[in-house]
């Protein structure tokens, strides 16, 4: 499953727009529009699905575009439901052919390109959307992920464009993704892919796209997303404010989520919202700020309605104030503020660039250096000081709530052992050769670790912790400060030595956590540029096998390979505390997916009553 990268030190913002009074659907024309105000801690990059992998941009596109399937918002464990598809796919016994019939009468949001005419979604729109990721001219970082599904003919179509140096042939039909008729789509894959539906449920990436819109806007398509989802883009001030508004063309969709029968909380949400038209709010205002304190204060001052979701829960530095001893603080409870806690399907980590001449490579001394750094990192201290106790030490990169995750699994990745770390460095020649107090490389040249980081307060705390741990091993470290989006670009290009970030699951299959080790995804999800044939063979087997004991055994082998070579130091699985003001209802933190803004309601009158603010 395609991973969503996020900055480990994500904070938030305050660039709020005034309340707009206008006619909402079925509402009194004098009543205020229902506006949900939220906050990102890191700037978006684009709204073209082929150009994004970050959590923040993908959260926005998930509300504009729609894939073939979706997750039920309330059901736990995760459950797939048709979205633009009419029903679940017809799947061949060998898991190689998937036939999908589309619902009729679903239309794109209005855009000048359509010249005032309704534009229905058809099967060719999905064919075009998938082909865009293969177009070498777009250089999509998502291609390395999509390629792993081995859609028949798609890689060959891409290769032909690259060899001929001619424009990508969008009109050339391929067997792997084609329209059987106007409303029937078929996928064919080279090898069995039992979990293909997980990819088809990624609305943030693989939603329907109108070709004429893309061709009209050209390179500016990232600022003109046109989808079929519940919202459309109304305003965008880059790195400052994003405003989504209700899509007037959105079909008559009613709230009909399906929580488990014994899920009291889910059943209560359903009872309150069942039958209501989606989306429940008229607008969503997303502001961006990079420091945590202003974000927290903006929530306390009711300038934003939630401090929730994968993109921004309660900042760790305020958790002891907000949730002393794990209980909602009395002053917050008195205001009616709601609190929700959950172990996330994510992992924070450091990666080592395996092509870097200092920390990369597969020779014994290079492996020893990475293992020593891992052993020297006091993760419990990081969780206590940086995460304010809101985390679980990671034993591998496979995340909770996914297949392959075993809470009983233990590994060296989770060990903190300074004497063993020093012994490894001594054994492989990383010693102080010139008497300056710092270890040198085995050949006597200086050893200075270059760690990329950001400038916000949380990043600075992270730098202090890392410097302490590395200096205790006799290792020098230098921090390279830049903006997170720019560092992500550099990481994909293999230009960073060491960098910290987080990765969140986009589906229930734990193989998504292993993408970052797959040799075919170097330059995409594999930021460490790790390449081992024995791992790649296991990864391919995992793709083909149905869930079961044999597949779980392969997960165990994969985790052990990762720990042996240590291209990543997995740090912790975050525990998030979400908080919402009492005028927000219907919230439940998604396990993997991003789209939830259309499933929550806002009561503007209660907001005014409690705060005196519109």
SS element count, helices: 19
What percent of residues adopt helix (DSSP H or I)?
A: 25-40%
Low-confidence stretches: 9-27
Largest sheet: 9 strands, mixed
The secondary-structure class comes to alpha+beta
Q: Report how far apart the termini are.
A: 41 Å
Shape: globular
Mean pLDDT, nearest integer? 93
Number of strands: 23
Strand content: 15-25%
Notes on the protein architecture:
Strand 9 and strand 10 form a beta hairpin. The protein contains 19 helices and 23 strands. With 614 residues, it is α+β, with helices and mostly antiparallel strands. Mean pLDDT is 93; it is low at 9-27. The radius of gyration is 24 Å and the shape is globular.
SSE map:
Layout: E1 4-6, E2 35-40, H1 55-64, E3 69-71, E4 80-82, E5 90-91, E6 97-101, H2 123-134, H3 143-147, H4 154-164, E7 177-181, E8 184-188, H5 196-200, H6 203-206, H7 211-217, E9 231-237, E10 241-246, E11 253-254, H8 264-273, E12 277-278, E13 283-288, H9 292-300, E14 306-307, H10 319-322, H11 330-334, E15 338-343, E16 346-352, H12 364-375, H13 379-385, E17 391-393, H14 418-427, E18 448-453, H15 457-472, E19 476-481, H16 484-492, E20 498-504, H17 533-544, H18 549-565, E21 568-580, E22 584-585, E23 601-602, H19 604-611
Parallel strand pairs: 2-13, 18-19, 18-20
Antiparallel strand pairs: 1-20, 3-4, 5-6, 6-8, 7-8, 9-10, 10-13, 11-12, 14-21, 15-21, 16-20, 16-21, 17-21, 22-23
Helix pairs in contact: 12-14, 17-18
């Amino acid at each position: 499953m395609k991973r969503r990268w996020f900055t480990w030190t994500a904070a938030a913002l305050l660039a709020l727009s005034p309340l707009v009074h206008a006619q909402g659907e079925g509402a009194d024309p004098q009543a205020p529009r229902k506006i949900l105000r939220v906050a990102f801690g890191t700037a978006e990059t684009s709204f073209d699905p082929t150009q994004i992998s970050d959590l923040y941009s993908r959260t926005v596109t998930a509300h504009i575009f729609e894939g073939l399937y979706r997750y039920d918002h309330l059901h736990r464990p995760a459950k797939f439901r048709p979205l633009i598809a009419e029903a679940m796919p017809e799947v061949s016994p060998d898991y190689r052919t998937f036939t999908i019939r589309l619902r009729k009468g679903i239309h794109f949001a209005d855009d000048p390109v359509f010249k005032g005419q309704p534009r229905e979604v058809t099967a060719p729109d999905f064919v075009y959307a998938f082909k865009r990721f293969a177009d070498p001219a777009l250089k999509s970082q998502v291609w390395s992920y999509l390629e792993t599904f081995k859609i028949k003919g798609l890689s060959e179509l891409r290769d032909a464009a690259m060899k001929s140096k001619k424009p990508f042939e969008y009109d050339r039909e391929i067997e792997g993704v084609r329209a059987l008729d106007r409303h029937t789509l078929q996928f064919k894959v080279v090898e069995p892919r039992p979990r293909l539906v997980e990819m088809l449920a990624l609305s943030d990436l693989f939603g329907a796209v109108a070709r004429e819109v893309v061709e009209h806007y050209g390179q500016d398509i990232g600022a003109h997303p046109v989808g079929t989802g519940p919202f459309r883009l109304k305003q965008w001030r880059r790195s400052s404010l994003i405003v989504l508004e209700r899509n007037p063309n959105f079909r008559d969709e009613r709230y009909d989520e399906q929580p488990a029968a014994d899920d009291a909380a889910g059943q209560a949400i359903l009872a309150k919202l069942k039958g209501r038209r989606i989306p429940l709010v008229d607008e969503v205002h997303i502001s961006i700020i990079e420091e945590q304190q202003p974000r927290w204060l903006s929530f306390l001052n009711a300038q934003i309605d939630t401090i929730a979701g994968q993109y921004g829960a309660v900042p760790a530095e305020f958790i002891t104030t907000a949730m002393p001893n794990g209980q909602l603080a009395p002053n917050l409870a008195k205001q009616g503020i709601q609190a929700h806690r959950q172990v996330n399907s994510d992992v924070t980590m450091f990666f080592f660039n395996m092509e870097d001449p200092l920390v990369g490579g597969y020779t014994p001394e290079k492996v020893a250096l990475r293992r020593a750094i891992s052993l020297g990192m006091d993760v419990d201290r990081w969780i206590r000081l940086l995460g304010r106790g809101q985390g679980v030490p990671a034993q591998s990169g496979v995340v909770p709530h996914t297949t392959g995750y075993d809470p009983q699994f233990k590994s060296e990745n989770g060990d903190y052992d300074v004497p063993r770390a020093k012994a490894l460095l001594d054994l492989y020649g990383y010693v102080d050769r010139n008497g300056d107090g710092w270890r040198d490389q085995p050949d006597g040249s200086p050893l200075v670790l270059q760690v990329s980081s950001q400038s916000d307060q949380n990043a600075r705390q992270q730098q202090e912790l890392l410097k302490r741990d590395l200096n205790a091993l006799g290792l020098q470290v230098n921090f390279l400060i830049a903006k997170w989006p720019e560092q992500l670009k550099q990481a994909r290009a293999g230009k960073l030595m060491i960098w910290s970030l987080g990765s969140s699951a986009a589906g229930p299959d734990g193989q998504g956590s292993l993408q970052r080790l797959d040799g075919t995804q170097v330059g995409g999800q594999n930021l460490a540029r790790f390449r081992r044939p024995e791992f790649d063979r296991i990864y391919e087997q995992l793709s083909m096998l149905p869930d079961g004991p044999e597949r779980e055994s392969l997960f165990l082998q994969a985790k052990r390979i990762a720990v042996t070579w240590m291209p990543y130091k997995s740090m912790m699985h975050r525990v998030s505390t979400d908080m919402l003001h009492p005028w927000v209802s219907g919230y439940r933190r998604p396990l993997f997916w991003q789209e939830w803004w259309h499933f929550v309601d806002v009561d503007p009158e209660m907001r005014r009553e409690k705060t005196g603010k519109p």
